[in-house]
């Protein structure tokens, strides 16, 4: 990762407009058709949350804005992306686990299983400081219509939240929220990412 001059990027105007805004975060909601993921979970034994995280990383890797992130008062460019998941640990609490994104599903699945097991057992967070991390929080046991993430003023990373998926006659739906820093991307970039996410789910 390297610091870059915002004026030499496509985010120059957004950097001037939003870096010092008291609330620079934007949240989108979208209902996804996750029927394909549920089928793979049932037939192949692949974890639903792992599949969601992989599709998120796959979609994000196709949007160049995901590789830039405002950190402090600087704009940082990253070479790699990771997806964070929250893990229930052995002490009955939760820990944070960053999983490096791999375009290969089998590789990502192996790292997901290894790292989440390690974090659960040790109760120590696994952080990847050299990657642009997309946060996620899955409240899979609860029916929620949406959630807006907290803006701490410290972490500007994009963040996704979802609850329990809902089975219908012909498809299974999942409502997600996607929060992003306006310096990092505009609404059109975020909407394109969510469209790509649905396509990656369908094509998996």
How are the secondary structure elements laid out?
Elements lengths: L1 E3 L7 H7 L6 E9 L1 H10 L3 H13 L7 E4 L2 E4 L3 E8 L5 E7 L4 H18 L9 E7 L20 E4 L3 E2 L4 E10 L5 H17 L1
Helix pairs in contact: 3-5
Helix content: 25-40%
Number of E-type strands:
10
| Chain-averaged pLDDT | 95
SSE topology string:
EHEHHEEEEHEEEEH
Describe the fold and architecture.
By secondary structure, the chain is α+β, with helices and mostly antiparallel strands. The protein contains five helices and ten strands. Strands 2, 5, 6, 7, 8, 9 and 10 form a seven-stranded mixed beta sheet that branches. A three-stranded antiparallel beta sheet has the order 1-4-3, with no helix packed on it. Strand 9 and strand 10 form a beta hairpin. The chain starts with a strand and ends with a helix. The model has no long low-confidence stretch (mean pLDDT 95).
Spell out the key features of this protein:
globular, three-stranded antiparallel β-sheet, alpha+beta, seven-stranded mixed β-sheet, 204 residues
In a nutshell, what does this entry contain?
This protein is α+β, with helices and mostly antiparallel strands and 204 residues long.
